[in-house]
Write a structure and sequence with these properties.
The protein is α/β, with parallel strands linked by helices. The chain is about 30% helix and about 15% strand. The chain contains 16 helices and 23 strands. Strands 1, 2, 3, 5, 6 and 7 form a six-stranded parallel beta sheet that branches. Strands 11, 12, 14, 15 and 16 form a five-stranded antiparallel beta sheet that branches. Strands 20-19-22-23 form a four-stranded antiparallel beta sheet, with no helix packed on it. The termini are far apart. Bound molecules: nickel (II) ion (NI).
Length: about 575
């Protein structure tokens, strides 16, 4: 029961966003190994650090104080890269042959040199030179002593191939491996060996981290050889989590990590080191930033992988662009930048200061700069002031119905709400009656018909009465008109056919429908009208082979068809004019 309660609490905490989703489990199968380099730093240590950085691997350096004095920047570099810095005495004596005060002097002198090189006061595990120790040595050094469990004998062979072979043929989980960074053969052999260990699934850790993860509390006066026989498995140090919350003036950044861990972070995208800022409490970012952070339990020897998080500021609200007869007004809280030539606006573009006039066919593109601290620029808004003065946000220039929409609205054949056209919306019977009525010149009508579902206050009322009296769009036997019902494409053909003045003479051959695979689904009563409409080029398929007679007519289709119908009327009347002129000669 207890376990279930904890699981439930965890689930609730995750759901509430309190805990990071990635909960580190204890991985009992993870193989660990600690590689150590003695006697340096030396002239090959930088090359070694390059190779370790490339592989994202940390090791432990048992440094001689006398060499750390010569290469302080190498010591600092190794420390900041997350390697464990440890002591190998000042100048490599047999500690077993020294007095206790001489031993203490070897230890303290080296510690001061290392402290100075890395810039902070630290504790340093110690490896006795030659592995020579006794009870006096252990009780005098005041720090844990570290031996090894795998000796590569690299100082003897001076052969990279042999160093490599020693590592890969003898390695065991929990090993502490002895190498020396004084020889280029050791550096080369070690890096090749590390590649092989990584391939075999080993995690390379510092000595301090190896002991911690195997449950060993390293204590002064004790000597440690390996963690080969330790069966405890603790997880590595968790990466910090980054939580971002919008607040007034910016983004509040909260970093969190394992209990007891210290978090080091940068905000400029560079890799964090022990020299980076130490996280104390949540902070507010007023600009965007890349947060990189790692957590360290003991900085000298155990740290997590680096977490990277992009923090972006919220955007200002996009400006609202409106126009009336080409008079453009832009509303926004921040400074508005705009262009009128179709190009993308930038902060170098014109700044909006008040309403201005544009010519037909102008694209107005604008964005708002930050309206307050902690914001970035808005997304872009745009408006087209069309060729005839209609700017619809849902009618893109270049769409197949663009110019037809422009024309039918300019001619007053179809009505809109002024900002959108709803091209994909179905044409209703009421709308159709109005389009046909206006196409016919909005003739006067006595207006005696009544429908129970059409109010005489409706803007379509007169058109509906006219269309009914002309027998073009007729009502139902129960005295209703169903003004909001959609009009199918074959119904549209029928009604246009009825409207066409010369309807006794179909303008097309019977076979005009043959190319459409769904021609057979045209209902009998609509067949003549559909043949006429397709033959006249008034209605075309929704594709080359699909006529879609039962599909709803869209408002975009109506716009295009209305324009074609008008063109037919005009060409018929000019043909009549021409024949009239001809007869006059
Ligand atoms: Ni040594």
């Amino acid at each position: 029961m207890k376990r279930r309660a904890i699981a439930l609490l965890l689930a609730l905490a995750v759901a509430a966003g309190v805990l990071p989703l990635q909960v580190c489990a204890v991985d009992s199968t993870q193989k660990l190994v600690a590689i150590t380099f003695d006697d340096g730093p030396g002239k090959y240590t930088d090359e070694l650090l390059d190779g370790l950085a490339e592989r994202g691997v940390v090791v432990t350096f048992f440094m001689q104080g006398c060499n750390a004095e010569r290469y302080p920047s190498v010591v600092q570099r190794a420390y900041e890269a997350g390697h464990q810095i440890a002591s190998h005495t000042y100048d490599h004596p047999y500690l077993t042959k020294l007095s206790t005060s001489e031993i203490r002097s070897q230890v303290s002198k080296t510690a001061s040199i290392l402290n100075e090189a890395i810039g902070v006061s630290n504790t340093y595990m110690l490896r006795p030179p030659y592995g020579a120790y006794n009870d006096t040595v252990l009780s005098t050094i005041g720090t844990p002593a570290i031996y090894w469990s795998l000796d590569t004998r690299d100082w003897e062979s001076r052969d990279a191939e042999k160093v490599y072979a020693q590592i890969v043929s003898n390695v065991k989980d929990g090993d502490i491996i002895l190498l020396h960074d004084l020889y280029s053969s050791s550096v080369e052999g070690a890096l090749r060996g590390i590649d092989a260990l990584l391939e075999q699934g080993y995690e390379l850790v510092t000595v301090r981290e190896l002991l911690r993860r195997r449950g060993v509390q390293a204590e002064a006066g004790e000597i440690y050889f390996s963690a080969r026989k330790n069966t405890v498995n603790l997880p590595g140090i968790s990466q910090p989590t980054v939580t971002v919350t919008a607040v007034d003036g910016g983004q509040l950044v909260t970093l969190s990590a394992d209990a007891g861990a210290t978090i080091y972070y940068t905000l400029d995208g560079t890799a964090p080191t022990s020299g980076s800022s130490v996280y104390v409490e949540p902070f507010v970012l007023e600009t965007g930033a890349t947060v990189k952070a790692f957590a360290a339990l003991d900085l000298n020897g155990g740290r997590s992988q680096v977490t990277t998080a992009e923090v972006e500021l919220p955007r200002a609200q996009a400006p609202v662009i409106s126009q009336e007869n080409g008079q453009v007004t832009i509303t926004a809280v921040g400074t508005v930048y705009y262009t009128l030539d179709g190009s993308e606006p930038t902060e170098a573009s014109t700044v909006y200061t008040g309403p201005f006039q544009v010519a037909a066919g102008t694209w107005i593109r604008a964005f708002s700069g930050p309206a307050q601290a902690g914001q970035r620029s808005s997304l872009e808004s745009c408006l087209l002031y069309s060729a005839r003065g209609n700017g619809f946000s849902d009618v893109e220039p270049g769409s197949w119905y663009y110019s037809a929409v422009d024309a039918v609205v300019a001619n007053g054949w179809m009505t809109t709400d002024g900002t959108t056209f709803s091209p994909e919306e179905a044409l209703t019977r009421g709308m159709l009656a109005s389009v046909l009525y206006r196409l016919s010149g909005s003739p006067d009508t006595a207006g005696t018909l009544q429908y129970s579902d059409v109010s005489d206050a409706s803007p379509d009322w007169k058109a509906i009465v006219w269309a009914s009296e002309q027998g073009i769009v007729t009502g139902y036997a129960d005295g209703t008109f169903h003004p909001d019902d959609p009009v199918t494409r074959e119904e549209l053909a029928v009604m246009l056919y009825r409207l066409w003045p010369d309807r006794e003479t179909p303008g097309a051959q019977q076979d005009v429908l043959d190319g459409y695979e769904d021609a057979g689904s045209v209902r009998a009563y609509a067949l003549d009208a559909m043949r006429w409409a397709v033959g006249a080029g008034l209605i075309k398929g929704t594709s080359e082979t699909v006529l879609a007679p039962e599909a709803d007519t869209t408002r975009a289709q109506m716009a295009v068809i209305a324009l074609r119908y008008q063109a037919m009327v005009q060409s018929a009347s000019s043909a009549a004019d021409e024949s009239g002129e001809g007869s006059g000669q």
